[in-house]
Amino acid sequence: MQQAPLSAHQRVVVTGLGAITSIGHDVDTFWNNLLAGKCGIDRITQFDATNYTTQIASEVRDWNVEDHWDPKEARRNDRYTHFGIVAAKQAFADSKLDMTKEDPDRVGVLIGSGIGGMATHETQMERLLKSGPRKVSPFTIPSLISNMCSGLFAIEIGARGPNFGIVSACATGTHSLGEAMHMIRRGDAEVMIAGGAEATITPFSCAAFCSMKAMSTRNDDPQHASRPFDAGRDGFVMGEGAGVLVLESLAHAQARGAHIYCELVGYAATCDAHHITMPDPEGKGLSMAMKRALASANIGLDQVDYINAHGTSTPYNDKFETLAIKKVFGDHARKLAISSTKSMTGHLLGAAGGIEAVVVVKTIQTGQIAPTINLTTSDPECDLDYVPNAKRAATVKIAMSNNLGFGGQNASAVFKAL
């Protein structure tokens, strides 16, 4: 059934972008390196990974948070918060919002994290075991909890609107954006700063993922380890960073003369209700998320031009995601351009949806589609157009971003040129 048109106060647009990744500490550098097919994966340097089955990751290197944030505040907080706050500062600056002209009760923040302050967990537990309870930092709890990016950035800019942190594993970033969209549509806020942040390249976290046998063991060839949809894929590669967007009502953006990138027109969240780590083998949950996201946007299947896939480079995810896309789009699936930028950034877990939303927005803005690199060997179960190995010029008016998380959680968001 056709939905009634949304008013300008309910329509939600993107007016600011922020990104910190292994291949760029700002949006322009990140985007240019994506288009060039640059891979940020290498040997782990943050700790000695010699005895780990996976010794590679996509680290943010040559980056000092104290160049971007008050050093005293930075020292009190976890690395994931560093990424989230600085990406939010970038997005906020890009949007050119002026809080002296805004109603602070109508500006909210929703920056999630799938795991939160893992490094804080580890370092403070080590202090406890080595030196006793009195040596544990009083900043431990605020530093490790997953809502802290939202709280701290609200303090930074004086935003008193909706504020919390979504935790839904690798679907966190997209859930944060979608729920922020709903808040604006409901009238709970005029502006939302939303996305995801993660920093889990730590000894304990990597050991745990190694034990699950979820990550690539292509240690001698890190640049080619993340290979979504390729027949030789053997697991994901951990990444870190943050992606944050500024969303606001169309009416608010127009009233202040903001630069508008595109519109966020649809979103849906579902659950596989199948298995804690493996996607549904029939793609039921993701299929439903895509269908509902498109229905909420009043978008026809043949109108979609591009999908930024979850595309983790794991044997199960890539073939089941391909199946889900075919189930939803039918014959149009073979006309879609699809790419997984995790081939270059690695998998940023709770930050993936934020980063990949930035990718979708830039794709619409620039008419350039970033490739899936390392796609060299055809997999008969992954037989769609994944934009292999080189960027592509294309007119993209409507694009979708998909993310899946442990627990069977699915999220899909739809963006449209204004």
Number of strands: 13
- State the share of residues found in helices, binned by percent: 25-40%
Largest sheet: 9 strands, mixed
The first-level CATH class of the largest domain is given as Alpha Beta
Output the CATH topology of the largest domain: Peroxisomal Thiolase, Chain A, domain 1
**Overall mean confidence score, pLDDT:** 97
Number of distinct helices: 13
Strand content: 15-25%
Give the termini distance in whole angstroms: 23 Å
Rounded to an integer in angstroms, the radius of gyration calculated over CA atoms is 20 Å
- The CATH homologous superfamily of the largest domain corresponds to Thiolase/Chalcone synthase
Looking at the structure, what is the overall shape? globular
Q: What is the level-2 CATH architecture name of the largest domain?
A: 3-Layer(aba) Sandwich
**Strand arrangement, largest sheet?**
4-5-6-1-7-13-12-8-9
Number of domains: 2
- Helices and strands, in order, run as EHEEHHEHHHHEHEHEHEHEHHEEEE
Unreliable parts: none
- Protein structure class: alpha+beta
Overall description:
- Helix 3 (79-95) packs across helix 6 and helix 10 crosses helix 11.
- This protein has two domains: 12-255, Peroxisomal Thiolase, Chain A, domain 1 (3-Layer(aba) Sandwich); 266-416, Thiolase/Chalcone synthase (Peroxisomal Thiolase, Chain A, domain 1, 3-Layer(aba) Sandwich), CATH 3.40.47.
- It is α+β, with helices and mostly antiparallel strands and 418 residues long.
- The chain starts with 11 loop residues before the first strand and ends with a strand.
- The chain is built from 13 helices and 13 strands.
- The strands form three sheets. It has a nine-stranded mixed β-sheet, sandwiched between helices. The chain has a two-stranded antiparallel sheet with strand order 2-3.
- It has helices at 27-35, 71-75, 79-95, 118-131, 140-144, 148-157, 172-186, 203-212, 250-255, 284-296, 315-329, 342-345, 352-366; strands spanning 12-20, 42-43, 56-57, 107-112, 191-198, 241-249, 262-271, 306-308, 337-339, 368-369, 392-393, 398-405, 409-416.
- Helix 11 links the parallel strand 8 and strand 9.
- The protein is globular and about 65 Å long.
